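Severity: low
Component: inverse-folding endpoint
Summary: output formatting inconsistent between runs
Steps to reproduce: submit the following structure tokens with default settings.
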């Protein structure tokens, strides 16, 4: 009889994937060893292999899980049956916020797919293409004339260029959050620079300055 999984197995496995994603994102997939993953997870290396076969499986599961979640977001938004522009805006805002909650996995997906085994790479890229196609269709529904000009997919790719690389400059502890930037990205894509509204963005914190010295008037003594 096969031995059953210990209580907490799934939770521990999810923690291992999250820790591995953080390591891959911060120091690169090739530069991360299974010893480092085990240490970060607080388990021995033999115990780590109880949860995953090898480092390539870690990478495949991180990438697959993230891209599958993105496909789920597309399905959820599509199910709302919104008007075309509202649907596209919802897709943009949901994706930006999704990236915020999975920034390590997202960085792994964008930078380390090339290290996947061919079969895993094909599977992940297949789901990615479906996500891009969904955005291209949303663009086409908002602007049907773009289809004849073959511009709906290139515009969708430009949109992903804005969203996908926000992690390189938008820091979690920065002045702006992903939630604040999500409607800005939607405004910019849908209406251009002139359509960007200032209200979703929190004003920068007031800088503390030294007490102002008294300004000399005509009657003041120097």
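Observed output (run 2 of 3):
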């Amino acid at each position: 009889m096969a031995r059953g999984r210990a209580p907490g197995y799934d939770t521990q496995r999810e923690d291992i994937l999250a820790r591995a994603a953080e390591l891959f994102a911060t120091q690169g997939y090739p530069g991360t060893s299974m010893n480092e993953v085990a240490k970060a997870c607080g388990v021995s290396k033999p115990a780590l292999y109880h949860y995953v076969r090898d480092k390539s499986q870690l990478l495949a599961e991180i990438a697959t899980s993230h891209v599958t979640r993105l496909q789920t977001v597309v399905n959820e938004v599509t199910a709302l049956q919104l008007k075309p522009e509202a649907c596209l805006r919802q897709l943009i805002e949901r994706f930006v916020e999704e990236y915020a909650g999975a920034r390590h996995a997202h960085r792994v997906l964008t930078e380390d797919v090339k290290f996947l085994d061919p079969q895993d790479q094909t599977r992940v890229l297949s789901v990615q293409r479906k996500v891009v196609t969904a955005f291209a269709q949303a663009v086409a529904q908002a602007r049907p004339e773009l289809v004849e000009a073959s511009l709906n997919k290139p515009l969708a790719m430009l949109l992903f260029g804005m969203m996908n690389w926000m992690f390189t400059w938008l820091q979690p502890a920065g002045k702006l959050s992903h939630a604040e930037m999500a409607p800005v990205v939607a405004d910019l894509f849908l209406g251009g620079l002139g359509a960007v509204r200032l209200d979703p963005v929190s004003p920068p914190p007031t800088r503390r300055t030294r007490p102002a010295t008294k300004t000399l008037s005509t009657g003041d003594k120097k």
